[in-house]
Fold this protein.
Amino acid sequence: MAAELLEFGYLFAVLALTGAVALRLGLSVIPLYVVGGVVVGPYVAGRFGLPYVANGEVVSLLAEVGIVLLLFFLGLEFSLDRLRAARSNIGRAGAVDLVVNLPLGVAIGLALGWTLVESFLLGGIVYISSSAIVTKTLIDLGWIADPESEPILGTLVFEDLAIAVYLAAVTSLVLGGDGGLVAIGHSLAIAFGFLGLLLVAVQYGTRLFTRVLAVGNQEAFVLRALAVVIVISGAALALGVSEAVAAFFVGMGFSTSGHREAIERRLTAVRDVFAAIFFFWIGLGTDPALLAAAAIPLVVAVLVTTPAKVFSGYLGGRVYDLSTHRSLRVGVGMVPRGEFSLVIAALAASGSTQVMREVIPAFAVGYVLVMSALGTVLMQRSDLVERLVFRSGSAGSDA
């Protein structure tokens, strides 16, 4: 027990150190958390006989809580009425994002000589932006209150719903099984049945959401909020539904309960702690030695999919009638990849081919590491990106 506690203390020491370095350099903490996880993980520090943090069940569970809380806070920014009012724009922007990026990943895989199923896995990895990383960066940069946040958040919602369908389909393709379309249909029925129940709860349960947190004691307030979001997210995951989407819907339920400001005030620090562990956990699973096997697809994917994501995001911003400069910020804001790409890679690792078992998982962790760092830096330096793209001396001239 003493060894595990010391290891856990080591984790927080590294997070504190990398956070201090980020503040000192004026950089986003997210890529440095990821790099910190790589350096002190089993594949770097462990190989040199140094103290390291194991990528065990406890860290993975805490990282899962980080994803849940980040998406819960994202849901607080929406209400079901707002989502319904924006459904046309969300659908159009999300469709553009899907049509541009998923087939592009499939095409890259086919060009590398991969099978259709392997290429379909690659398509999902490069398509889905990281709701966790993007949301965290929006909050850190103060973009959450800006006009560009709406198309970004709307497209993330579309992606999270689309990936629920994608995962149900690709699970049957990778794992085989005798069920075929029946198995896929069964998985989708469970997923959308559960999400449908959540939507009904969000629509008609405002009074219940209000009563749950109607308590003056701060400790009881925090514990009740965590109990609701984590229990529902865990139930979703047990049924094969995205826990991130479930947490988002729970956040929407609380957004109209009258407790939104109190939740943000009392749980922000809790969210940030678990979110830091999530980003650190991404690094823990990254083995630099395996990246060589995926070097060619990794380089190609980064060079091709980065401008493609910026372009599709830009078009999404224009769907919302934003200016060209703010639309470019939408595109830049969609670049980071993260948790869902790793989920797809873990699924691929249980496949039957060498590309699925070895190349795709190595590619995914390298791709997430590069794109999470690149995406957050691009968002932080969006003014420079705007000047380079528009060749203008004033990046905010029509913002």
User: Anything to note?
Assistant: Residues 2-390 form a domain with the Na+/H+ antiporter like fold fold (CATH 1.20.1530.20). The mean pLDDT is 86. The chain is about 75% helix and 0% strand.
